[in-house]
Write a structure and sequence with these properties.
This protein is mainly beta. The chain is about 0% helix and about 40% strand. It has no helices and 18 strands. It has a 7-stranded mixed sheet, with no helix packed on it. A 5-stranded parallel sheet has the order 2-5-8-13-16, with no helix packed on it. Strands 3-6-11-14 form a 4-stranded parallel sheet, with no helix packed on it. A hairpin with an 8-residue loop joins strand 9 and strand 10. It is globular and about 55 Å long.
């Protein structure tokens, strides 16, 4: 599902597009990789910047056959996923959150925060101008 006014750069790579839900007016930047083994949902007015990688799959490494596991990703509305960030399986990011450049997100991030690092963690509140 692709909302109105969505921009997907031609170099973006989407593995299984039928498992991707993009809200109105969001942007999927240059060379973004949406590895949509599981569902990837991006809220309205969110931006996924260049070279970001959203990986909605993993393996059960405790099982010798290492079966593939679908693990959904949810990005809230009004978010900015900065350049080269990695969003791992089963991650939920709250509304209006910024994920810093090259962050490695392996756990949920709260809304209205600026988050960064490896592993990613909330750094400070995102205070919006009026």
């Amino acid at each position: 599902k692709v909302g109105q006014g969505v921009i997907i750069y031609p170099s973006a790579e989407i593995l299984f597009p039928w498992r991707v839900k993009l809200g109105d007016h969001c942007v999927v930047g240059a060379k973004v990789r949406l590895y949509s083994i599981g569902t990837i949902q991006v809220g309205e007015n969110s931006v996924i910047s260049q070279h970001a990688h959203l990986c909605a799959g993993t393996h059960d490494y405790a099982d010798p056959s290492m079966p593939l596991i679908r693990a959904n990703i949810s990005i809230g509305s009004g978010c900015w996923i900065c350049t080269e960030a990695f969003i791992g399986p089963s991650v939920e990011i709250g509304d209006r959150t910024v994920i810093g450049a090259r962050a490695v997100v392996v756990s949920n991030m709260p809304g209205d925060m600026v988050c960064a690092g490896n592993p990613c963690r909330p750094i400070k509140p995102r205070i919006m101008k009026e």
